[in-house]
Design brief:
This protein has helices at about 1-10, 15-30, 40-50, 60-85, 90-110, 115-125, 130-145, 150-185, 190-200, 240-245, 285-290, 325-330, 370-380, 390-405, 420-440, 445-480, 485-505, 510-520, 525-535, 545-565; strands at about 220-225, 235, 255-260, 260-265, 270-275, 280-285, 300, 310-315, 340-345, 350, 365-370, 380-385, 410, 415. By secondary structure, the chain is an alpha+beta fold. The strands form four sheets. Strands 4-3-6-1-7 form a five-stranded antiparallel beta sheet. A hairpin with a 2-residue loop joins strand 9 and strand 10 (about 350). Helix 4 packs across helix 16 (about 445-480), helix 5 (about 90-110) packs across helix 18 (about 510-520) and helix 17 (about 485-505) crosses helix 18. The protein is elongated and about 95 Å long.
Length: about 575
């Protein structure tokens, strides 16, 4: 055992990776719907490993934390600045007010209990489930004019208070919003009925007869049919066939033909189809496999059906597409033969409903023939094709500039105030993420790389926090006492109840959107999943993305403010 301890102390990178691996492993474990989550698991494993009294250089955690905050900003930047420009202004205002309520309630509880800056920052981070405040609080404490001993004691209390309050912060938030929230809005049965009504109304197409918007996950299929019915008693054009499909309420396209043994790729609308020809039809599975007896029998023509089909994510960047509905997008000429499979914003899937709007910075996954997909991608914005490379010039200089600006300190009434390097990295990520949505040809960071920066960055930081705070962790819990847990319950529950009431009475949100806005403002993805499961609908996600972008930014910056107030 002494041999292991000596190795760990001489090579601190080894226990960090041990903590990370075990933390992720434990974080995956679930009992029914309960899970500690990755961050809490990594922290607790770090506390256990840290009982070996392992010293770790300070810059290690700072580097990973800056990487994490930049990734957060980069992910939500497009939605953040789009919202500030007026898109969904009611949701923006709600998120701001909700963040202020979360901040005010937590400050009130912290001041009432006489908490020091570290306890207040930890309470805020755990109760509001905003893990980044651990690092922001740590950075801010280091700028305070206090003794080194006091600052160290306060810093040690941040992860302690976070660990005690985070579990209820996560589970309690999901329970309040999925159970009490619907009760406050008229009962779960009524809210589910109203959600179904809204989903139906948003799926009514005004510019197209295609009603296939509800289930975006159904794939596109390509089937071959022989034109041997009475419909082709006289020659018909490709346009005639597609128009007939349209009158039957199905959006189907003629992609290829076989005429007299010859294959015709991408036939024009005026191309003539005679009896005996074979057509390849494309569209959603539920439409193409319906009764096509008015065309003829289905045939298995392997050669005719052997052609490349492409599915790619496209970033919305065109002014002509920004802000239009899914219905309007589908009616554009360049969408002929192209089907929208999914839409996502800030990493969150959105329902593909006819009246749902697509906004600049959103990712739309489209499927169709390569030629058609390429034309649609060019008109929509930028084809975000899978790649392994990231623009590290963009990442490195972005974090450098942001952290440098954040490090600048000004004194207000003798109190040192700064964004801190972490706040600067966050804002830099926001700005550069937004710029990339405007000019998507530069600054590419694949989703997998963003995920790695986000999760590895935060959890490496948390691992170091847990290991270094371990010697005083248990005594810290004893000092904080049972009232810390009670304080967390109050700081978690009260803002959510106020938020649901505000969303209903003041902002007049639809119940499903209201609950989604509350989850987004509090940046609690677990709550969004619980709400969607309770309502049996993905509609709450429409209230989540904008408020998540605002909440994620404001709550992190408020971590600086609560630390200064309680100093």
């Amino acid at each position: 055992m002494d041999w292991i301890i000596d190795i760990f102390r001489s090579n601190p990178s080894i226990p960090i990776f041990l903590t990370l691996g075990l933390g992720f492993l434990i974080g995956k474990l679930k009992y029914k719907t309960f899970s500690l989550g990755t961050v809490t698991s990594v922290l607790l494993v770090g506390v256990l490993v840290g009982q070996m009294n392992i010293p770790i250089p300070g810059p290690v955690k700072s580097v990973f934390f800056l990487l994490f905050l930049f990734a957060i900003g980069y992910s939500v930047g497009p939605q953040f600045f789009r919202a500030l420009r007026g898109s969904g202004i009611k949701q923006v205002l709600f998120a701001v007010v909700m963040c202020v309520v979360c901040f005010a309630v937590t400050v009130g509880v912290a001041l009432a209990l006489g908490y020091n800056p570290g306890e207040a920052a930890g309470l805020f981070a755990g109760a509001q489930t905003i893990s980044a405040v651990i690092g922001v609080g740590d950075d801010t404490i280091r700028t305070l004019t206090a003794s080194a001993a006091d600052k160290q004691a306060w810093t040690d209390m941040v992860p302690v208070c976070y660990a005690v309050t985070y579990i209820f912060g996560t589970i309690g938030s999901a329970y309040v919003l999925s159970y009490f929230g619907p009760m406050m809005l008229g009962g779960l049965k009524k809210v589910k009925a109203r959600t179904a009504e809204l989903e139906k109304s948003m799926n009514e197409s005004s510019t197209s007869s295609d009603p296939a918007y509800i289930n975006a996950l159904r794939p596109v299929v390509f089937r071959a049919y022989k034109a041997d019915s009475d419909f082709f008693a006289q020659p018909r054009t490709v346009a005639d066939v597609e128009k007939q499909c349209d009158t039957l309420g199905r959006r189907i396209f003629v992609e290829r033909l076989r005429q007299n043994g010859t294959i015709v790729d991408d036939p024009v609308a005026s191309a003539t189809i005679s009896k005996g020809d074979i057509l390849v039809l494309s569209g959603r599975r539920e439409f193409v496999i319906q009764d096509e007896s008015w065309i003829g029998s289905e045939v298995a023509d392997a050669e005719l059906l052997s052609f490349p089909v492409e599915q790619i994510p496209v970033m919305v960047a065109s002014k002509d597409v920004d802000g239009i509905t899914v219905d309007e997008l589908r009616s554009r000429p360049f969408m002929k033969g192209v089907v929208i499979k999914s839409i996502s914003a800030a990493g969150q899937s959105l329902p593909v409903l006819a009246k749902n709007k697509v906004m600049r910075g959103d990712l739309i996954t489209i499927t169709g023939l390569k030629k058609e997909v390429d034309a649609a991608a060019k008109a929509i914005g930028y084809a975000d094709r899978p790649t392994k490379s990231s623009d590290l010039v963009f990442v490195g200089l972005g974090i450098f500039i942001g952290a440098l600006i954040g490090a600048i300190t000004i004194h207000l009434g003798g109190i040192p105030v700064s964004l801190s390097t972490s706040g600067g990295a966050l804002i830099s990520g926001l700005v550069l993420g937004w710029l990339r949505s405007r000019h998507p040809s530069f600054g590419r960071i694949p989703d997998s790389a963003v995920w790695l920066m986000n999760n590895l960055g935060l959890n490496m930081f948390i691992a170091v926090i847990g290991i270094t705070a371990a010697p005083t962790f248990i005594s810290g819990i004893k000092d904080a006492g049972f009232m810390l847990f009670v304080a967390g319950v109050i700081a978690t529950t009260l803002p959510l109840i106020i938020g649901v009431w505000m969303g209903d009475k003041l902002f007049k949100f639809h119940p499903a959107i209201n609950l989604g806005c509350c989850a987004g403002s509090r940046t609690t993805t677990a709550s969004l999943g619980a709400i969607q499961e309770a309502l049996d609908s993905s509609l709450p996600a429409m209230g989540y993305t904008i408020t998540y972008a605002i909440g994620n930014t404001l709550l992190i910056l408020m971590g600086v403010a609560i630390t200064l107030i309680c100093a």
